[in-house]
């Protein structure tokens, strides 16, 4: 089996280590220090208080793990002299979107001008994974084969239960908020790459988008690389969770690429079930019941067991035999959203303020982000 190359992008919030709040506008020396620590892998984000690590291209997960752990360590060391920390999660428990300032770059300024309040409130961080697809294989057909499994990845990644200083009622509020943007949920049903390209070209012609990368669907053919890109998953505080989800997505893409007719069973009904499962994942995370096969709703443990049956050989071929035990561990011990809510509720049961509870969650996330 082909060993597809891949890349990982992680987003982080700058966090004041005294107040535990997201920083609205870090001083220029902070950005300079981060850029020096990461070189070309450093990237700015929509808000000045966010940054991204865009990894180099990897061939195996040993080098991916080494890189991500080292990148986090270098960044944390770079910001410590400024009394700052890095927090990696889908949402920041003590971020106030009203205090966040847009990054002064043309691309980001265009987003704020075009999408207004939707852009200004989008203070969120994701985990993005690129997996290579060979030129002889239709990327959209591969995407269609992979898509029905993606709510499983979302449920495992959930890390944004707190929003605007309160329990949002969702395990991934980030994905709920993403639905306020155009072209940021599940892509319409496209038969193949040609049909996809025609649609994107039409959007460009009418001025709906200025460039293909403004199609931000949760899974998409990347505009600049020969990859399928996963964008649905929340940023992961624990680096080992980010690596496990990246490995799972790589397995899905590799398996789909090896099929004679990838995506052949992805039809309007399958897409409707995908939408329902995505809703269940963002609302209940690993505690949801999902529509899988003809037997109706099943627990996430059952869905993961089906995934292991389907993709176990591919996992071994890609030298990832420990992946599924790691994913079962996330379910057994709880996702980041579970840990955050437990920490939040623990403090609220005491005669202390909600602010103290949010502070406690921020401490938890800072600690997990730094445990490299």
From TrEMBL:
It catalyses: L-cysteine + L-glutamate + ATP = gamma-L-glutamyl-L-cysteine + ADP + phosphate + H(+). Pfam families: GCS2 (PF04107). Coiled coil: none annotated. One of its GO terms (molecular function) is ATP binding. The lineage of its organism: Bacteria, Pseudomonadati, Pseudomonadota, Gammaproteobacteria, Pseudomonadales. Keywords: ATP-binding, Ligase, Nucleotide-binding. Its EC number is 6.3.2.2. SUPFAM superfamilies: Glutamine synthetase/guanido kinase. ATP-dependent carboxylate-amine ligase which exhibits weak glutamate--cysteine ligase activity. This is Putative glutamate--cysteine ligase 2. GO terms for biological process: modified amino acid biosynthetic process. Belongs to the glutamate--cysteine ligase type 2 family. YbdK subfamily. InterPro entries: GCL_type2/YbdK_subfam, GCS2, Gln_synth/guanido_kin_cat_dom, YbdK. The keyword Glycoprotein does not apply.
